[in-house]
Design brief:
mainly beta; 32% strand; globular; single chain; four-stranded antiparallel sheet; 4 strands
Length: 71
């Protein structure tokens, strides 16, 4: 749905897969968020929580049917 501000509204509760790019490395991650009052949390393939690097962070959300490629 589109919000009153013209932005696409998304509910990002639950969990999903992603890629964390840091220090020139692509790290497969799982993200989890219990509800809207919780923070997003990110875990590596062994289940260890990942602490994001200090500074600005950008998230790109794509449909699960899309393929993400990078070099």
């Amino acid at each position: 749905t589109i919000s009153d501000y013209g932005h696409q509204d998304m509910t990002l509760n639950g969990e999903g897969e992603g890629i964390y790019f840091t220090d020139g490395v692509a790290v497969p991650v799982t993200w989890k968020r219990a509800d809207a009052s919780d923070y997003n949390r990110y875990y590596d393939s062994e289940g260890n929580e990942i602490i994001l690097n200090t500074g600005k962070t950008m998230f790109e959300i794509v449909r699960s049917s899309m393929t993400v490629s990078y070099e």
